[in-house]
Amino acid sequence: MNMSTFRAAFGVMFALAMLSLASPSSAQQKTPPAPQQPSALSQSQPPALSAQAAPPAQAPAPSVAAQPAPTPAASDATATPADGSRSLKSTTVALRELSPWSMFVSADILVKAVMIGLAFASLVTWTIFIAKMIELSLIQRKLRAALGQVSDARSLAEAQFALGAKGSVLSSLLTAAMREARLSAGISSDAGIKERAASSFAEIVRAEARRIRLGMGLLATIGATSPFVGLFGTVWGIMNSFIGISKSQTTNLAVVAPGIAEALLATAFGLAAAIPAVIIYNHFTRMTKGYLELVGRSSGAAARLLSRDLDRTHGSSHSRAAE
What is the dihedral of CA 16, 19, 23, 26, to 10 degrees? Predict the structure, then answer.
């Protein structure tokens, strides 16, 4: 009995040991499907619990999507004015660079020569204007004063004494009349003496007219030719602009504008030289005409004094002959 009981207990213990050894392997075999249990549990959960658990998972999504959305728009909005301001600044700088001096420096050598020539012509015009204004004002004032001094003179000698050593055209006329009277001494023909004196007066008047018109021919030349010289520079500059267009193969105004501006600057130089020259020429023409009228009056005054001297000389000779 005891042996059988012992065998039975030993068999039970061996069976339990085998079962304990077999349980870890079965546990290892059953571990992979373990993650499927939550899905099963979630499927087995009631709809109320799943509905309560869903809002916390969906709540952050709108906030996350809404927050970064304004950032690109704001950055684009801020970037667009910056680019526009930069383009406006660059355009302003480019427009400021188109000054007359910069256009002159960047112009073609022939256009530069045209501009320099026209600037020199303008300088000559204003120099003539200042010199002729001073000259005409002085000689007109001097000649009027001389005519006033000889208006009461009775003879050539008295008139010459009244004028003194003043160098005026009236002094030259009186000197010519006295020389002709001296050279014609002993000639009884008064008409011949007056004719020869008038010829001398005409030569003096013509010489004075040529002297007073000195420089006016240059003014007329500058006024007549400066616009065409400036137009030549304009044509040359525009031709270079079209050559630049053909080389760059673009009709962008940024490429064409500088050359056209340089060409138009040459025209501006031409007009700036021509317009004052024409105005000054017309002004001096009127002033010269007024001065030559005074010279004609001086010639008449000298001729009258010569006629008085001749009549006085012949009168005295006739009185002596009568005695």
Answer: -170
Q: Quick one: which of 192, 195, 194, 154 has its CA closest to 308? A: 154
Distance between CA atoms of 215 and 135, rounded to whole angstroms? Answer: 12
What tokens appear for 258 in the block?
Answer: 């500088």
Residue reference for tokens 């869903």 = 54
Q: Are 283 and 246 in contact (CB under 8 A)?
A: no
How far apart are alpha carbons 120 and 270 in whole angstroms?
Answer: 11
What CA–CA distance (Å, rounded) separates 13 from 89?
Answer: 99
Of 190, 136, 228, the closest CA to residue 306 belongs to 190
- SS3 call for 12: helix
Q: Tell me the domain boundaries of the chain.
A: 106-164+205-298
Of 262, 276, 260, 10, give the one whose Cα is nearest residue 123: 276
d(CA 40, CA 273): 103
- For the segment 4-47, what is each residue's pLDDT rounded down to a tens digit? 555 666 666 666 666 555 544 444 444 444 444 444 334 434 44
Q: Tell me, yes or no, if the pTM score tops 0.70.
A: no
The per-residue pLDDT for range 157-170, each reduced to its tens digit, is 888 888 877 778 89
Cβ proximity of 196 and 212 under 8 Å: no
Is residue 50 predicted with pLDDT exceeding 80?
no
The tens digit of pLDDT for each residue in 243-252 reads 877 777 776 7
